[in-house]
Design a protein that fits this description.
Blueprint lengths: L5 H5 L2 H7 L4 H4 L1 H8 L3 H12 L6 H14 L3 H21 L4 H6 L11 H18 L4 H21 L9 H13 L3 H14 L5 H12 L3 H11 L5 H4 L2 E10 L4 E4 L7 E4 L7 E6 L2 E5 L1 E5 H11 L1 H30 L2 H18 L13 E10 L1 E10 L5 E13 L4 E7 L3
Parallel strand pairs: 1-10
Antiparallel strand pairs: 1-7, 2-3, 4-5, 4-8, 6-7, 8-9
Length: 423
């Protein structure tokens, strides 16, 4: 057995480093628990503390911290994280060319986490939402900067990477609202038309298209929309009224887990949650019910499926490389000891040790909602007290209610509201 010490020489240092590397989900369990219990300040604090000095998981800590700060209504601080995360993603996508060789030698956990494509889109979506919720005269203008960057990304995914399913109707609708707030009715109209193409059953955008077509003087298009939707534009009914737009984050996004007996591949596991929708009420009367505009859960699953071919190829190449390393150790031991039994054992131990260090890369943005929903309602100008009633999967009210007081509605203006359900 004198040749067995050769193991310590031939096992790659990167593999040994990964063997001692903690699991991201396990390391951030306390921060995530604080988030899901509604203690957003504590969650953000824990993520910030753990993220200091992090290399491979730097992006994730920025995303999670940004999300916790967003949920805690610290919109400017949240955007410091999201805008930095956007730059990190861009840097990593540029420097990752050829980095697959490292993952073949070890596994995907050896690489800095660069985010899934749908997560890349959501960074700018939440940054734009932060700007709108923070308010101020420059809010819509700053939100539109993020929306334009988002539009560029969506075009890249659709045209270059053939990821048309990543076209995010929620992001497009958010962009349309930002354009309306910035008095750019024509650009808002373009975004709303795209939303209708992506989600023909989304009711609020039908009213938006009719209203803006009339405002822009597109008489023929206005008539077509009215006939298609069976709606009639009534300017008198809009007098002295404004609108509230509710952006609702629902449920828990799926998390990555390791498949069994399949080359250590990741798969998304859907999380359980009760609240599936919401209704906005005024004086006990239902104003509007939210509708899903972006199914993050389904998009996550589809995105990972599309990446599975290169992941499988890297895992297969990694196994072949490890088998070759084990054969090399077996040969070295055989040459030095003339002991075939010791050589075979050394080879087996090397392969098993190398294989044992390989695990699926389970890193993902863990504080995301399962889907993004929108409701839009018209109210008389004035200050209102509204109620948010959460619904289960069958559309029945749950015990969860939320009061939204002091909602100021101005004639001809849009007021932005936001809600998040965690159960």
């Amino acid at each position: 057995m004198r040749g067995l010490p050769a193991l310590s020489v031939l096992i790659p240092a990167a593999v040994l480093g990964l063997a001692g590397c903690g699991n991201y989900q396990r390391r951030t369990e306390a921060a995530r628990g604080a988030y899901w219990s509604g203690d957003f300040a504590r969650s953000a604090e824990l993520y910030q503390q753990q993220g200091r000095g992090e290399g491979r998981d730097r992006l994730l800590y920025l995303l999670e911290t940004g999300m916790a700060l967003h949920a805690g209504k610290q919109y400017q601080e949240s955007n410091q994280c999201f805008l930095k995360a956007d730059r990190v993603i861009e840097e990593l996508n540029f420097t990752h060319v050829g980095a697959g060789a490292i993952a073949v030698l070890t596994d995907d956990r050896a690489l800095p986490y660069a985010g899934e494509e749908f997560e890349d889109v959501l960074v700018n979506t939440f940054a734009a939402l932060n700007f709108l919720l923070a308010g101020g005269p420059k809010g819509p203008e700053e939100a539109l900067i993020e929306c334009r960057r988002l539009d560029w990304k969506l075009r890249q995914f659709a045209e270059l990477r053939k990821r048309k399913y990543l076209q995010n109707a929620f992001a497009r609708y958010l962009s349309g609202v930002a354009y309306e707030l910035d008095r750019e009715a024509n650009d808002a109209y373009i975004d709303y038309k795209m939303v209708h193409q992506l989600r023909p059953d989304f009711e609020p955008v039908k009213q938006d298209l009719v209203r803006l077509a009339h405002r822009l003087g597109f008489a023929d298009e206005a008539a077509e929309w009215e006939q298609k939707f069976n709606l009639k534009h009534d300017p008198e009914a809009l007098a002295d009224t404004g609108e509230v737009v509710l952006f609702y984050q629902c449920g828990r996004a799926p998390v990555k887990v390791q498949r069994e007996k399949l080359l250590d591949l990741p798969i998304y596991r859907k999380e359980r949650f009760v609240e599936r929708g919401a209704e906005l009420l005024a004086g006990g009367a239902v104003l509007a019910r939210t509708q899903v505009l972006e199914d993050i859960e389904a998009t996550a699953v589809k995105t990972l499926e599309d990446r599975m071919v290169p992941i499988v190829a890297r895992r297969a190449a990694s196994l072949a490389l490890k088998a070759g390393a084990a054969a090399g150790v077996r040969q070295v031991v055989a040459n030095n000891t003339n002991d075939s039994a010791a050589a075979n054992l050394a080879g087996i131990l090397t392969f098993e040790l190398l294989k044992a260090t390989a695990q699926a890369d389970l890193r993902c943005w863990l504080t995301l909602p399962a889907n993004l929903q929108v409701a839009r309602a018209r109210l008389p100008a004035g200050t209102h007290s509204l109620e948010l009633r959460f619904l289960d999967g069958a559309g029945n009210p749950t015990a969860h209610r939320a009061e939204i007081t002091g909602v100021v509605v101005r004639a001809g203006e849009i007021t932005i509201l936001e809600a998040r359900s965690l159960k």
